[in-house]
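sanity check both lines:
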Amino acid sequence: MKALSLKQPFAELIVSGKKTIELRKWRTNFRGKFLVHASKIPDKKAMKKFGFDKLPLGMIVGESELVEVKKYNNESEHKKDKNKHLADSSWGKYGFILKNSKRVKPIPMKGKLNFWESGINL
């Protein structure tokens, strides 16, 4: 099954259903279920912003489904979805629309860039 690595707390925000759009600077043709991987290095500023002290790192923490990729052409389009992606436009102009996100029992694993094959099937 494919996986996507994200820094904490963004992986946690996705598996808890609070973040339904993942911003990226690149687009993908991939659609379907994938595993949510929490990178080993967290975003310390975002951890404080969202009120987290400690979250799992270097692990598969959930799964989600990428159903669509939305391109943000300007700042006003980006701001309309602020409550879904929880970020500013510097994170990217492509919004990966996510559905059916859920938490799984953490599985230790090394991450990679882009979508990558995890070797795990849930």
